[in-house]
Design brief:
It is a single chain. The longest helix is centred in the middle third of the chain and has 30 residues. Helix 3 packs antiparallel against helix 6. The protein is elongated, with a radius of gyration of 29 Å. It has 13 helices and no strands. The chain is mainly alpha-helical.
Length: about 375
Amino acid sequence: MAPRMQRPDRYQVVQSLKAAAAAIIAWALTGWWLEAPMALMAPWAAVALVQGTVYRSMRTATQLLLMITAGTLLAAGAAAVTGNTMTAVVIALPLTALLGNLAPVGGQGLYAPTTALFVLAYGSYSLPAVGHRLLETLVGAAVGIAVNAVVLPPVHSLHVNRLACALPRDCARLLRDIADGMEDYDAQRAERWHRSAQDLLASVSQLYVGRGWDSESFRLNPGHRLRRTTPAPSTAWDVVWARVSNRLLALTLTLWETASDHRGLPRPPLRALEDLGLLLSAAAEACAADEAIMAHGWDEEQRDRRNAALADAHRALAAVKEHLHGQAPDVGAALGSLAADCHALLDDLAPDEGDTGVRPTGAR
């Protein structure tokens, strides 16, 4: 069955409409007003410069203009020297492709050879024609930057907060799933838990990337104060949930190994697994309280809920450690590894509001 397409979010819709509008405006200015012979260059540049941030639009504009100028001049020069389009293509394309790959302009390097192809395909190599190419590109770049900066300039703080809220929510979901299946899990289920823990680390990486976009979206953005933003947690929040995700990765790996027939690590006794289930269920409740705190800010109810859940988890941890006495060495090793992972998990969930990086509502 073919995968279902995701519905575009508001940001994607807005940026797509802005790119289309910029292209239309650029085409109208160059094709109708300036009567440019190659009006394609303006809307092409305008679409390319409706980027995810205003700063990125301006940085990309510099790179794009350099590559298009180089491609235009090399193509026109090769055509003027050879007087033959095919020979000019043979000369200009290798040079522009090499320039695009070597220049520190990222993906904008592609514009050098493609511009050379457009210029040679249209067959206009005179000095006025070259001037028109560059003027059309400059107009398109100006339109693209202006539309991106003036019409709902992109700000990414909401995306960062969605990612930050998702971490405790997904941790709580995984912890509940493990707690519910602790007494009768098998290798297949434990493997699924481990893959979910790996997904948590991927979400942490996405949060790091999202913070970069959030910071960049406020640079050179003339309208960011007019846009609705939400306060993001400090980077201490990322550290806490990166640690929690790593603990869950280690915990689920141990559970997977105790359920696998190919490993020598035995499954802990049933009563120990029951107490582990209680511990993880209480830890899930603490994570859920953290999600509420992230979404709505600190309040007494959520703090008490969190502290009570952590107290329950520590009592369950003490019960788990009691089961270590009198166990066979291999069973003790397996149960001790799980107890150590859970102890570290509770330590990572223990910081108070000053350490989690949650800011009061309205702060930035």
